[in-house]
Amino acid sequence: MEPLPETREALAEYMSLDSPDIDDLIRDLAQGAGELVPDLVGLSLGLDREGLTFTLVASGDGTALLDAAQYLDGGPCVEVTEGRAPVLEMDFADPLDEERWRLYAEVGAAAGVRSSLSLPIYLGDRLVGGLNLYAGSSEAFHGHHAELAALVSASTAEAVSNADLSFSSRSKAQAAPGILRERLEVETAIGLLAGLRGLELAEAEQRLDDAALRAGVDRAAVAHVLVRVLRQDP
């Protein structure tokens, strides 16, 4: 699992010089977690900034889009990273989990993800972010919470703490020329999201933009997943 190129580029100027290299960090986490959880399919580091969660780095497009689904409509990584829950494991086969975070569950199922685990990252006593792990089987994380939590070392916490990703700086770093070409699908996704949550179109568009920004992906990619998932509803 490799970090997204655009994520690496966007973060390069924000990481402090004495922080661990972001490539090495994500590879080490992926390797360690993969040894404990053979069905691991992706992971991301979430960053808490002023009560909002951003994706600091993700191991692939699918992982970042799962994060975006949570930013749109709620999910375990947001609950943990923003301090509303200590640790959350989600089994996508559990109807209660799917009812609580429906959009997240549907995007996860479409991506072949069957369970997730979100763990907090602390620097001393301060919550600075969260480690989000995604697996291809329902019980992949059972019995591994403590070992996976131990992977979140002081260096990881320091890297997360030192990242400075405001909405404006990340938006400039990730401007994508393909957005205009995908405008029709974006507008369709906005309409579907508005209908799903009873929002005004402008509010649905803002929610889509914010989710893409926080996940570190193009909003056209988020729109594509939304259209694919929501149009499957009966």
Describe what this molecule looks like in 3D.
The protein is of the alpha+beta class and 234 residues long. The protein folds into two domains: 5-167, GAF domain (Beta-Lactamase, 2-Layer Sandwich), CATH 3.30.450.40; 169-230, Arc Repressor Mutant, subunit A (Orthogonal Bundle), CATH 1.10.10. Helix content is 52%, strand content 17%. The protein has helices at 5-12, 22-36, 61-73, 76-81, 95-100, 102-110, 145-150, 154-162, 167-173, 183-197, 201-215, 219-230, and strands spanning 40-49, 52-58, 88-91, 115-123, 126-135. It has a five-stranded antiparallel sheet with strand order 2-1-5-4-3, sandwiched between helices. Helix 10 packs across helix 11. The protein starts with a helix and ends with a helix.
Largest beta sheet: strand ordering: 2-1-5-4-3
Q: CATH H level of the largest domain: which superfamily?
A: GAF domain
CATH class of the largest domain equals Alpha Beta
Level of helix content?
Answer: 40-55%
- Rg over CA atoms: 17 Å
Q: For the terminal residues, how far apart are their CA atoms?
A: 35 Å
By helix and strand content, what is the structural category? alpha+beta
**Total domain count:** 2
The total strand number stands at: 5
**Count of DSSP helices?**
12
Q: What is the average per-residue confidence, as pLDDT, rounded to a whole number?
A: 82
Give the percentage of residues in beta strands.
Answer: 15-25%
CATH topology of the largest domain: Beta-Lactamase
- Poorly predicted segments: 10-19, 175-180
CATH architecture of the largest domain: 2-Layer Sandwich
User: How do the helices and strands follow one another from N- to C-terminus?
Assistant: HHEEHHEHHEEHHHHHH
Oligomer: single chain
Protein name: GAF domain-containing protein
InterPro entries: GAF, GAF-like_dom_sf
Organism: Nocardioides islandensis
Domain GAF: 21-170
